[in-house]
Every structure is written in structure tokens, then in C-alpha cells.
Amino acid sequence: MFDQVATGYDRTNTVMTFGNDAFWRAATTRAVAPKRYERILDLAAGTASSSASLAASGADVVAADFSPGMLAEGKRRHGHLPNLSFVEADAMNLPFGDDEFDAVTMSYGLRNVQQPKKALAELFRVTKPGGRMVINEFSTPPGRAFRGLYRFYNAQVLPRVARLAGTNGDAYDYLNESIADWPDQKRLSAWIREAGWTEVHYRNLSFGIVALHRAVKPAAPGAINSPRATSAA
């Protein structure tokens, strides 16, 4: 499915989010806070738009995705960047060593993994002690009225917008279903803590349409997990 929509993926995202995708990408990059010479994994990188944003800092970025079609489009657009590499990877069985990355990030991909808890554990494994994780994912708007409007848009409008933009509308039917079935901010935060991450926080973007989840891998064995996730303004 993702191979089929790769060419028009970014264009459709911009149309269906009314340009908010650029704002969300910038917020994710700021949350990761990439530094020159750091090694960063961008999992579910898609066409590598987020990877290129991270690489602009001078960090060594690995764009990893399960879809070869997405990676091919990413290489076509951003393959000229010397500090950006591309790897086909399964989020539940990452082809990287333990403690390899200073930071790991994943945008709009965790809910597409068959076993998301296993993916969170794999991200934990490949992150260096003291390293950080940022997950940007569609979430649950806390306001009841806006949440109802958002769900109507996803169910009735979004697939039609995708078809008008020249993209496979059935893929965006799936998008609506996957968002509707996805846990809310607090439950995802609990999953992150279960995987071993500490300092777990989340921040709502665009009234909670998406949420940025941040966490840190303990710097020393036996570190005590934060008792609960908190919402950051």
C-alpha cells in the first residue's frame, strides 16, 4: 500500500492536513534537537522529509522504512545529502546493534507496526544510554466537540481529498481506521514506560490531532522510571 502511494505521498499529506504537516515536522525536529555528528535513526521515514530536516543540523541520519517504494522516493529526493543514508528495516527487528544511536524518532509509523510495543523495545535497544526518543503520532483530541469534527473529517472527507489529490483513496480509508483504533496520549505514554524509557512526556499539536511523545533511555542500569507521563504545554 505504501509503495503505491509513495510518489504523491507528501503532496497528499500537505493537502489533507491543510499544510500542518510542515509545522508538525518542524516541531518534531526541534524536539529531537539534533546536533552535529550525532547518529540519529528516523524510523518509518517514508520519503525522508523528516530525515532531511534532521540531517540539516549536521547529524548522521539513517532513514529506515519497511517500504522499498518509500525509500526509493526518498533517495530520489534527498539521496544527494552526504550525511543521510537509507536502510530497509522492520521496526520489530531492527538491523542495528545495541546502543548505536544518540537519538531515535518515528513519525506517523508506530500505529502501522503489527506489534508497536515490540517496536518501542527495539528503539530502546538501539539507543545509547542517556539517548532520547521522539514519537510523533496521530492521537486523540481532548476536546469533545473538536474530536467529533475530526473523526467526521477522517471518515468522510479525508479519503475523498486523497482521491482528488491523485492518491489511492483506499489507503486513506486505512489511515482513518488506524487512527480510530490507536490508543490515546496517556495509554501510549504507558507503553513507552513499559519499554523501559524514562522522563516520558507528551505535547499535543493542533488541538491533539497529533501528539509529540518524548522519552530518555536511562543513563545507568537500574534507573527508576518516572511514575507517570505528563502533558507538556
UniProtKB/TrEMBL annotation:
Q: In which pathway does it act?
A: Quinol/quinone metabolism; menaquinone biosynthesis; menaquinol from 1,4-dihydroxy-2-naphthoate: step 2/2
The EC number on file is 2.1.1.163
Pfam families membership: Ubie_methyltran
Keywords for this entry?
Answer: Menaquinone biosynthesis, Methyltransferase, S-adenosyl-L-methionine, Transferase, Ubiquinone
For this protein, the record's InterPro entries field holds: SAM-dependent_MTases_sf (IPR029063), UbiE/COQ5_MeTrFase (IPR004033)
Chain residues that bind S-adenosyl-L-methionine: 47, 65, 90-91, 107
**Cytoplasm keyword on record:** no
Query: What biological-process terms (Gene Ontology) are attached?
Result: menaquinone biosynthetic process; methylation
Q: Which domain of life is it from?
A: Bacteria
| Reaction catalyzed | a 2-demethylmenaquinol + S-adenosyl-L-methionine = a menaquinol + S-adenosyl-L-homocysteine + H(+)
Q: What does this protein do?
A: Methyltransferase required for the conversion of demethylmenaquinol (DMKH2) to menaquinol (MKH2).
Family (UniProt): Belongs to the class I-like SAM-binding methyltransferase superfamily. MenG/UbiE family.
* HAMAP family recorded: MenG_UbiE_methyltr
What's the protein name? Demethylmenaquinone methyltransferase
